[in-house]
Design brief:
Number of strands of chain A: 15
CATH architecture of chain A: Sandwich
CATH class of chain A: Mainly Beta
Oligomer: homodimer
Strand order of the largest sheet of chain A: 1-3-4-5-13-8-11
């Protein structure tokens, strides 16, 4: 469980070479940052990894051309082999910031293998979870220090940092759930979360120019 | 998700009348106590509910005869129907105290339906998780404010409060996992956690008089 191996590409758990027999373990969360003191893998998502996800594609292109490629979020993973009854853990650190008026967010995904729930425990900061089911129904729930969010099967979920500090949360999910990012990249969420008068507001994703 | 319905008997999730379609929800954890502000069911475990679990049966009998029946722990549950891919949540508040030299603990259980993992997030206090597999192998891990414990399938688990304040932790587990308390009540854990010189110590469960 120790290590600092960093991949900044989509790496699927199913490709990982791990024992089928998970071990007992415990890990401390750093009091100041919320980050697990040990983890198996760290994913780094930069702006370039989220190309096509933010509504203002033009601004993203300009930033990248100018060599500006900020880290949007990092994920500290403690995955298990994708076997029935096993859970993976991941701690996400979502930076504060905006692309235009749109707050930084995680890509968002459906689970590739359903039914699979996910539980989030908010550790630091203030934000929300934007959810959308396969029928296009949309919902949102607060995700912040000291709350717990339950995401049932069939709901795509995206975290959004609407605060001034980092948004840090722990996720627990079946190790076999997998990630379907494609559906979200293709169709997008029907709503965006933008700053309006200093506060977060949900607007239709069609109302912002692309 | 709201309510204060209290049962202080073993109630199985599978007997509960709940919709098969779980809803999205979020719940705040009280900052001071760690207890979810909303929950479905509260279990109260008193000394009388743990008769036969502590090593000093004689003392337990004497206490109960004298009308002393302290609360050992409370569990605030947000269960889901026992369907594949759903998770139940439970927040346990384990009081500080001892029966003789033995620290207060939860009954401990195997999961009735395997494979089923469980993840604990320590919210308040200081204690440990005592674990034992079907082959009798024993292990222990810290469980305390700010850590996360992973319990893989096939490990019975018991929380023990070795601190001076309440031990509060959140558990995430498959809603279909169920609880097998019988195996533990029958065979017991091979180790006990007792106070020795003001500190917790693991001793063989045969070394204390019954």
């Amino acid at each position: 469980m120790q290590g600092n191996v960093i991949f900044n590409v989509d790496a699927k758990l199913s490709t990982m070479n791990m024992s089928k027999l998970p071990k007992l373990f415990q890990v401390e969360l750093d009091r100041r940052t919320g980050i697990p003191r040990r983890y198996k893998r760290k994913l780094v998502r930069r702006l370039s990894d989220l190309r096509g996800f933010f509504s203002d594609n033009k601004m993203v292109g300009q930033m990248l051309e100018r060599g500006k490629n900020p880290i949007i979020y990092e994920v500290y993973e403690i995955p298990q082999a994708p076997s029935e009854g096993l859970f993976s853990l991941a701690c996400t650190v979502l930076r504060p910031g905006k692309i235009g008026r749109e707050y930084y967010f995680t890509k968002g995904h459906f689970h590739a293998k359903e039914p699979a729930s996910e539980v989030y425990v908010g550790l630091k900061g203030r934000g929300m979870l934007l959810l959308q089911n396969r029928e296009g129904k949309i919902a949102h729930l607060p995700l912040e220090a000291g709350n717990v969010v339950y995401v049932p099967p069939q709901w795509a979920h995206r975290a959004i940092n609407t605060g001034r500090g980092k948004l840090v949360f722990l996720a627990v999910y079946p190790s076999s759930a997998g990630h379907d990012y494609g559906s979200i990249k293709k169709s997008g969420f029907a709503k965006l979360v933008v700053e309006r008068g200093g506060k977060p507001a949900l607007i239709s994703s069609r109302s912002l120019k692309r």
